[in-house]
Specification:
Elements (H helix, E strand, L loop, with lengths): L17 H10 L7 E5 L5 H8 L5 E6 L2 H13 L6 E5 L12 E4 L3 H14 L5 E5 L10 E7 L2 E9 L5
Parallel strand pairs: 1-2, 1-4, 2-3, 4-5
Antiparallel strand pairs: 5-7, 6-7
Helix pairs in contact: 1-2
The protein binds S-adenosylmethionine.
């Protein structure tokens, strides 16, 4: 189902620190069987780490910004993983995520709210949803991890479809 674009909240670009990227992929137990989707992929750091550091089979980054997608492409080329990455210019609310075994997010709570019914419809049981900083309101996390990075504290929420209610 396509959700009208007027419902899309404004989500600014703020990159996830590398230490948090690693923790997100670690608690999701990303491995060689996984297809990882980052909705609002920015410069591609999460999808690139998923394939380069965690050996995911494939990773898909979705973003609306041409500039970010270009950066993601250049970064994937520089890490030698361009062939394992798919980059898509799309509104994440319109992206079919049924292929994902792991979905990563660093959006806003109201954007997560809009994604919840889509995830419940499209994602298979066992799919992990990992969100940096913003919870999935009303869902039961499997794990909440605090990551300290310098003087900053970050929260990472892990949900597993089928165990989230
Ligand atoms: C907070 S940044 C997170 C970037 C990256 N996931 C990370 O953690 O480093 C949010 C990203 O979402 C993108 N974005 C915002 N609204 C979007 C939408 N409706 N569809 C696709 N991407 C969107 C922005 O361009 C931005 O790159």
């Amino acid at each position: 189902m396509s959700i009208p674009h007027r419902e899309v909240p404004h989500v600014p670009y703020v990159p996830t620190p590398d230490k948090v990227v690693k923790k997100m992929l670690e608690i999701a137990k990303v491995g060689k069987e996984d297809v990882v989707y980052d909705l609002g992929c920015g410069d591609g750091r999460i999808i690139i780490s998923a394939v380069a550091d965690f050996n995911a089979k494939k990773a898909v980054g979705v973003d609306l910004s041409d500039e970010r997608l270009k950066e993601a492409e250049q970064n994937a080329l520089a890490r030698g993983v361009r062939d394992k990455i798919v980059l898509k210019k799309n509104n994440f609310l319109d992206e079919d995520v049924s292929e994902a075994t792991v979905v990563t997010l660093f959006l806003l709570t109201n954007a997560n709210d809009l994604l919840k019914p889509k995830f419940e419809k499209e994602l298979k049981p066992g799919t992990r949803v990992v969100s940096h900083e913003f919870e999935m309101r009303g869902w039961k996390p499997k794990e909440v991890v605090k990551v300290e990075d310098g003087n900053m504290h970050h929260l990472v929420y892990l949900y597993v479809i089928g165990e989230h209610t």
